[in-house]
TrEMBL record:
InterPro entries: EFTu-like_2, EFTU-type, P-loop_NTPase, Small_GTP-bd, T_Tr_GTP-bd_dom, TF_aIF-2_arc, TIF_IF2, TIF_IF2_dom3. The keyword Nucleotidyltransferase does not apply. The keyword Nucleotide-binding applies. Keywords: GTP-binding, Initiation factor, Nucleotide-binding, Protein biosynthesis. GO terms for molecular function: GTP binding; GTPase activity; translation initiation factor activity. This is Probable translation initiation factor IF-2. GTP binds at residues 19-26, 81-85, 135-138. Residues 10-226 form the Tr-type G domain. It comes from Halorubrum tibetense. CDD domains: aeIF5B_II (cd03703), IF2_aeIF5B_IV (cd16266), IF2_eIF5B (cd01887).
């Protein structure tokens, strides 16, 4: 056993790699791994579950003179392989982000894209220090590749034209970082990495700039995080679940990143579950076999214990309900209840505020569920239920209970729809939205709600009585009664057929009859607009006794309709209809100030 004060009690910093979908996250990680394997004689990398450990000696041989191993106490870098996408960065370790430091990969030609913005939001929210890898510099027109060289040496080999084109793109990215609230510069110009973000130009294809990226990550970790890397090497292990997976022969297992202490075979552990924390016993700790032995039948080998920082697959009973993003705690010599409470408290930090009525949200990890909840809160969309996991029939049943039609919706972030749920969806009155970009998912839902509201307004508008003011034209009485047929001019609003009409005497409305026909140039029509002259048939009155040529009449708008028009549909009706409505309401309200309110 090592003495706890020795430098080897410093754990490896955990590095996350994030970025937009095709900006080269995976190829960059593969290149770093590949270079590390080719430097194998200098202390080969260790493949972990969901992570790759690159020791200091290998980093030093890859980075050449940029990294002198004597300057560092940290053992190397542990790169987490993102489970499929960026949102994993909200995986937590004790209230902070799981990653100690992050690399944000940006395509130098494309600049910021939606997922870049999301990754930046997450980094800002979790306070994770990061560097920007401006990838794909080798695609600059006229580029002269210098395999594996540090970036400044590579730049010396470029034509002025290629260098200035690259600089233009790099400064574009620096500008976009500035718009996002981060002061940034090319890393060799940065004086204070705590105040400024370093931008490292790299190529995942030619490995140019990768020595610089490793040097910057090592330097930042050593300088600013050394204290955080000091751990109790014998303490009870703490970790975070990356993924829950079924493995043949083991059942449900959890791929876990251990960031503190030690997990041993046989340990009692507490794992965050969908309903309650799961208490179980470690049956096996599995690591991938070394690269040289990957041809063997069994891809994992059992290990007796794992110390931080490391990725490991834990096989234990009852892990089916474990959640990606949830904490894992070794109990060891502490009261079990205390550890359960600790796990509950950490999960409570991620509790999503829910409402009586709202949408149902499903996400792949606790971190992305939290990110979804934050984004929906900002968009003022209420959530009725939010859970980790694929979409199941139960979710559809819950979504169907929403009171408002637009809340009968399921928003799934980076999840699948279970087969039995697909059948339910066909017959259910629930709309499903899925996407692996949070803002896109919410935008799709908002568009759907807007269209639904517009359709509802159009339906209401079709049924509602429109306001109209019209005048009986002199010398245009074609029939005095049964029905009276007269020529009129519409002064404001829309005159509709089959509506009651009347006139104001003082502030009192007198109904005189109802329209039973409108003719325009000899043709029957349903309505007449402001400015049009038409002949109308009115059942009820006699011209010369009840109404006179030259009189101004109004369509009678029922009080409930007037209220809807004024409060909900004002923007949907025309300016002259608004004018007719205002005149009608003013006169009505002189008698009763609360009419139609």
């Amino acid at each position: 056993m090592t003495d706890d004060t020795q430098p080897d009690t410093l754990r490896t910093p955990i590095v996350a790699v994030l970025g937009h979908v095709d900006h080269g996250k995976t190829s960059l990680l593969d290149e770093i791994r590949g270079s590390a394997v080719s430097e194998a004689e200098a202390g080969a990398i260790t493949q972990h579950i969901g992570a790759t450990d690159i020791p200091l000696s290998t980093i030093s041989s890859m980075a050449g003179e940029l990294v002198n191993p004597d300057d560092f106490d940290l053992p190397g870098l542990l790169f987490i392989d993102t489970p499929g996408h960026h949102s994993f960065s909200t995986l937590r370790a004790r209230g902070g982000a799981l990653a100690d430091i992050a690399v944000l990969v940006v395509d130098v030609n494309d600049g910021f894209q939606p997922q870049t913005e999301e990754a930046i939001d997450i980094l800002r929210r979790t306070g994770t220090p990061f560097v920007v890898a401006a990838n794909k510099i080798d695609t600059t027109p006229g580029w002269n590749p210098q395999e594996g060289e540090p970036i400044q040496r590579s730049l010396e080999a470029q034509s002025e034209r290629a260098e200035s084109m690259l600089n233009e793109n790099l400064y574009e990215i620096i500008g976009q970082l500035s718009d996002a609230g981060f002061s940034a510069d090319l890393y060799w110009r940065v004086q204070d990495f705590q105040k400024n973000i370093g931008v490292v130009p790299v190529s995942a294809i030619t490995a140019e700039g990768i020595p610089d990226l490793l040097a910057v990550l090592m330097g930042l970790s050593q300088r600013f995080m050394k204290e955080e890397m000091a751990i109790d090497v014998h303490g009870p292990g703490e970790g975070t679940v990356l993924e829950v997976k079924d493995e043949r022969g083991f059942g449900a297992t959890v791929d876990t990143v251990v960031y503190d202490g030690v997990i041993r075979n046989g340990d009692t552990i507490v794992v965050g579950g969908q309903d309650e924390p799961i208490v179980t016993e470690v049956r096996a700790l599995l690591q991938p076999r070394p690269l040289a032995e990957i041809r063997t039948e069994k891809q994992f080998e059992k290990v007796a214990e794992v110390g931080a920082a490391a990725g490991v697959k834990i096989a234990a009973p009852d892990l089916d309900d474990a959640m990606a993003g949830a904490p894992v705690r070794v109990v060891r010599d502490r009261p079990l209840q205390d550890v359960i409470e600790e796990v509950k408290a950490e999960l409570a930090e991620i509790e999503v505020d829910t409402a009586e009525d709202g949408v149902v949200v499903k996400a792949d990890t606790l971190g992305s569920l939290e990110a979804m909840a934050n984004a929906l809160r900002e968009a003022e969309v209420p959530i009725m239920r939010a859970e980790v996991g694929d979409i199941a029939p139960r979710d559809i049943a819950i979504a169907e209970t929403a009171n408002q039609d637009e809340h009968k919706a399921l928003l799934g972030f980076n999840v699948d729809v279970l087969a039995n749920a697909e059948d339910e969806l066909e017959s259910a009155d629930v709309k499903l939205f899925t996407n692996d970009v949070i803002y896109q998912l919410i935008e799709d839902y908002e568009t759907y709600v807007e269209e639904k509201q517009r359709a509802q307004q159009e339906t209401v508008l079709d049924k509602v009585v429109r306001p109209a003011r019209f005048r009986l034209l002199p010398d245009h009485t074609f029939r005095q009664n049964d029905p009276a047929v007269v020529g009129v001019e519409v002064i404001a609003g829309t005159l509709q057929n089959n509506r009651s009409v009347g006139y104001f005497e003082g502030n009192e409305f007198h109904r005189v009859g109802s329209l039973s026909g409108i003719q325009k140039q000899g043709d029957d029509v349903d309505e007449a607009r402001s400015g049009e002259r038409v002949s109308i048939a009115i059942d009820g009155p006699t011209v010369g006794r009840d109404i006179e040529e030259g009189d101004t009449l109004w369509t009678e708008v029922p009080e409930k309709h007037a209220k809807i028009l004024e409060q909900e549909l004002k923007e949907e009706i025309t300016a002259d209809e608004r004018e007719a409505l205002a005149g009608y309401l003013d006169t009505r309200r002189k008698r009763d100030p609360f009419w139609g309110k």
